């Protein structure tokens, strides 16, 4: 009898042990698991948000700094004319008919072909919040907003091998001459410019120096900086604004080049020294009013000794739960926004190393 009783208790104990968790125990375990998963999910979302914010900041900083450094390196060399700072003779003459015209040249209304490219003596020029070429042969068809900046100079190093389509400036200590093509070794060195071709696009430049030591040929550099409405393609969606420039190519054409994506505004001011030794930064419209490149008042640009640049960079994509409602002040202009893009303003001052006399 006792042994049967103890065997029954032992069987019941084994049955109870194998029963598993109760409903209450399962609910408690499930609640604890959900708390842990929720904490991990919150940690992941915060980490992902911080990573996205950091990536956006890196994108703005990289684009903004690269754009600013590119412009700074170019502007500080504006007006470099090789050996001489004497203007070509004659200045601003139209393109010669004996050579192929420049393709897609940026021309203001009523300007003669060749007048923009041949105005090499004007190292710096700008337009204030408008496209100055919209009524002429428009080379800024994709212009979006902001200022336009023109930089003219020669490359820092001369060349010994000349290409037929490239635009060059041949300089000596006394003279300079713009030409396109290859020089003629039989040129009459007693004349300047060559009587056989119309200046300043003489096919065969006739400048000589002392045993030709002080005569060098420099490729011509012409850049037009502006904000265009897209980065990669005019058909992209959504469109991402970008800093671009129209650049004189080696074949004599002018083409748009991407500098940096995400740059949505550019503002420029110019420092001028006055006779009383005072200095003031002005916008382009204050220097020449509404005048264009070929006007006589454009000579006021020779007094510019420094350039102040503002670039407003934004991210390519909207950031969730973020609202930018700031007003960004850039020189004489301001830009108010109301969207979900993060932005950053960059600025710098550039002293001009080369000034025409």
SS content category:
alpha+beta
What level of helicity do the residues show? 10-25%
Please tally the helical runs, counting DSSP H or I stretches of 4 or more residues. Answer: 4
Distance between the termini: 128 Å
Count the E strands.
13
Strand residue content: 25-35%
Poorly predicted spans? 90-99, 184-204, 208-212, 290-297
Shape: elongated
The overall pLDDT average reads: 78
What profile does the largest beta sheet have? 7 strands, antiparallel
Order of helices and strands: HHHEEEEEEEEEHEEEE
The value of Rg in angstroms is 33 Å
Give structural attributes.
single chain; alpha+beta; 7-stranded antiparallel β-sheet; 4-stranded antiparallel β-sheet
